[in-house]
Amino acid sequence: MSTMVRIAEMSCEAFEPFIDAYIDEEFGDRERADMEAHLATCEDCRKMVEEQIAFRAELRRHLEVTPAPETLRKKVMSGLEDLEREQVQREQKAKIVRISWVVGPLAAMLAMAIVVPNLDLTVAPAASSSGPVIDHTVDWHQSNFPLEVTTADAEEARIWFEDKVDFSVRLPQFADDRVNLLGGRMAHIEDRRAALLLYEVDGARLSVILFDGDGVKVPREKLRRIHDRDIVWLNQRGYGVAVVQDSGVTYAMTSDLSEKRFLHLVADTLER
């Protein structure tokens, strides 16, 4: 969908061809947010979507479903299980080969034999470059997508995300009363479901994205030590980005606040 024109900027005539894809949930979070922003302001397009949903529901109600023979179902399920086993085996072999090329034969043997638990910061340093995680974090911060939950109550926001992600959502705690929670929405970092929280600080935006941090790569040279904790700090496309991990959950914070002010807020969360 990378070549698609931003739907929020389309006319109604150009918008109509995407209605079926919207109903079938074929869009990513960004495109879907654009489409919902258009629907929020266009009664005609919203009515077409509602009519299409009603038509499909009525059609399904009148269709007679003929179940497949049990022998066919078993054969299909058996084939799928065989394919899944083969895929797992291929991925395991490919992972071993990648480890061998990157860190050498000895490290590859250790990687197969040792499992390292997640303790506090477990962000894995990369050799160079900012990596897609940092790029995606800045992309979400720059995007002006509508909030799906609007609240200044941290507990209310936590409960809203509770059944939408597969990790424990614990919002950062800021002692500074000038940090105001505005709300949040669902997001994606690479292929990981993420919780995006938006704050206002001294008139500036501060976004915090939470996601499962297993295997996240960051630039080694950007690691800093604050309050006996490792964090990643870098400037990306004019924004400050701080990445810290706690109990297997990665917190990626982005803002255009000054470096001193930003790091003070990050340090504040590490103390609490």
Describe the protein in words:
The structure is a single chain. With 272 residues, this protein is an alpha+beta fold. It folds into two domains: 7-62, no CATH class; 124-271, MucB/RseB, C-terminal domain (Phosphorylase Kinase, domain 1, 2-Layer Sandwich). The protein is built from eight helices and ten strands. The strands form two sheets. It has an eight-stranded antiparallel sheet, with helices on both faces. It has a two-stranded parallel ribbon with strand order 1-6. The two termini are 41 Å apart.
Major beta-sheet overview: 8 strands, antiparallel
Q: Beta-strand level of the residues, as a percent range?
A: 15-25%
| Subunit arrangement of the protein | single chain
Bin the helical content: 40-55%
CATH-defined architecture of the largest domain: 2-Layer Sandwich
Mean pLDDT: 77
Strand order of the largest sheet: 2-3-4-5-10-9-8-7
Which tags fit this structure?
272 residues; alpha+beta; Phosphorylase Kinase, domain 1; 2 domains; 10 strands; 44% helix; globular; disordered N terminus
SSE inventory with pairings:
Elements: H1 12-15, H2 19-23, H3 29-41, H4 43-62, H5 70-113, E1 124-126, H6 131-142, E2 149-150, H7 154-161, E3 179-189, E4 192-201, E5 204-212, E6 217-219, E7 223-226, E8 229-236, E9 239-246, E10 249-255, H8 259-271
Parallel strand pairs: 1-6
Antiparallel strand pairs: 2-3, 3-4, 4-5, 5-10, 7-8, 8-9, 9-10
